[in-house]
UniProtKB/TrEMBL annotation, chains A, B:
CC terms in the record's Gene Ontology section: cytoplasm
Subcellular location: Cytoplasm
Official protein name in the record: Endonuclease NucS
Matching CDD domains: NucS-like
Entry keyword set: Cytoplasm, DNA-binding, Endonuclease, Hydrolase, Nuclease
Record has Glycosyltransferase as a keyword: no
PANTHER family: ENDONUCLEASE NUCS
A matching Pfam family: NucS_N
Alphabetized InterPro entries for the sequence: Endonuclease_NucS, NucS_C, NucS_N, NucS_N_sf, tRNA_endonuc-like_dom_sf
Family under the similarity heading: Belongs to the NucS endonuclease family.
EC number: 3.1.-.-
Function: Cleaves both 3' and 5' ssDNA extremities of branched DNA structures.
Taxonomic source organism: Haladaptatus paucihalophilus DX253
Residues annotated as domain Endonuclease NucS C-terminal: 151-258
DNA sequence: AGCTATATGTCGCAG
DNA sequence: CTGCGACGTATAGCT
């Protein structure tokens, strides 16, 4: 191998014994036995582990899948999350959600890493044919993401300035419960007529109209059969089909960016 | 630094010149300049790049976000996908979908990697305060995932044995178009009455009922106002509220596992 | 643990 | 490209 003159095993955390290390423990083209010990130690420590190599993947749970041999990046997180990434796509080709338990073992002479969880019972197994690199990182990240432009922001903006929906709109409640679910903003118009406002942060299709329709119908039942109720969909824009569905249902649309 | 007696720079692909290398090019605690050259070369080659270090993240696009300093794993894929992973959660804390263009540069003395895309216009920028490890992997993976237990499987099972829905059910079309969207399975019952069948691979809530309702309503309009049409939701199970909504709408439920 | 709705959803497919 | 719905959706909030 071309890189033979470099040490294959760079793992040496057992020597340093630091508690707040920032150095990764990385093995390059390790044996499967070396990799196993490395991964076991990392899992024990609560490190984030990355593996790269040729592997197969078995998943069994809500559905079932098998992925034949190929080079992939595998990430094991201390919360049990497991990700298998190929060279393309944002979504992992296989994964395990957080909450499960990680494990690693040798199957014959091959490293197998996996994550198991219950409710629902799901199993993900990654078996390596060839290991290119195995790393362990000590990672604690308390920083929180600050995010703007959500539906929640849109709601706050409307509550601060209800005229954004229409002049005279008066919000009375958010998350008002109905038999069909919670109304985003419940209120009255300038005439005192009840209004159901459904918010979407992006262009809406038929699903959003159906949602609004369910709330308005349920509210009609909850109040009086003949109560006049206006349903308003607030979103940046609406598709043609959704616009037609709004019209058929006697619902309204107000354009508002998040 | 504890590992100073190991070579900091293991990158040496420029020496080997192999086309089908399986060795990763990995830098450990590189300078930002070294890392930049490494990442640029990797992007040029179409490699998958992983970076680990302390960084901040700026996102601007469909929404906006800022993430303060912390240790994270950053993945750059040759298709432009960018992922920023913390120690927990399946979803990246920040990301950029595929299709954009990757870039890397020094901002002052710091490495900044990013991905830009259009329609929608979105930008993701990751700036490193400290670099722990930078790797590049040559990865081509033609293998396809085989997945069982999808809605498509459920549909096929019903088409093979329509009695699974009910004795005498006769499928006439899949994906039949209505003004409200496509019906999963369109057919007739033993009496010849039109049936709209909506399939779900898992337990359903109000949204699925709304969807079925839209299709049935649209079909009533499309055919005749007074045409008798049965709407059937086929799923493993149904929530209480959804069951009530089905009853109120005169719709039916058939339990079937995927 | 189950229910409901949001998401920078992502993804695939059809028009 | 947009529209539309599925997804092993994940995730958060609430009961």
């Amino acid at each position: 191998m071309a890189i033979g003159f470099y040490p294959t095993t760079i793992y040496h955390r057992s020597v340093t014994q630091t508690n707040d290390r920032t150095d990764p423990a990385t093995l390059r083209t390790p044996t499967h036995g070396e990799a196993l010990a490395h991964v076991e130690t990392a899992i024990e420590r609560g490190d984030l582990v990355t593996l790269f190599g040729r592997c197969t993947v078995d998943y069994d749970g809500r559905a079932e899948s098998y992925l034949g041999p190929g080079d992939r990046l595998v990430v094991l997180k201390p919360d049990g999350t497991t990700l298998v990434h190929t060279e393309e796509g944002q979504k992992p080709v296989n994964w395990q959600p957080p909450g499960g338990t990680l494990d690693a073992e040798l199957v014959g002479d091959r490293l197998r890493v996996g994550s198991q969880r219950t409710s629902p019972s799901e199993s993900l197994e990654v078996e390596f044919e060839r290991l290119t690199q195995v790393s362990a990182f000590d990672v604690t990240d308390a920083t929180e993401l600050s995010l703007d432009g959500t539906e929640e922001d849109l709601r706050q903006r409307i509550l601060d300035d209800p005229d954004l929906v229409e002049a005279g709109f008066t919000p009375l409640a958010t998350e008002r419960q109905t038999a069909a679910g919670a109304i985003d903003i419940y209120g009255t118009d300038a005439e005192g007529t009840t209004m159901v406002v459904e918010l979407k942060r992006r262009r809406v299709g038929p699903d959003a109209v159906g949602q609004l329709r369910r709330y308005v119908d349920a509210l009609r039942r909850d109040l009086h059969a003949e109560a006049e109720i206006r349903g308003v969909l607030v979103a940046p824009s609406v598709t043609e089909r959704a616009r037609n569905m709004l019209a058929e249902s006697g619902l309204e649309f107000v354009s508002l960016e998040p």
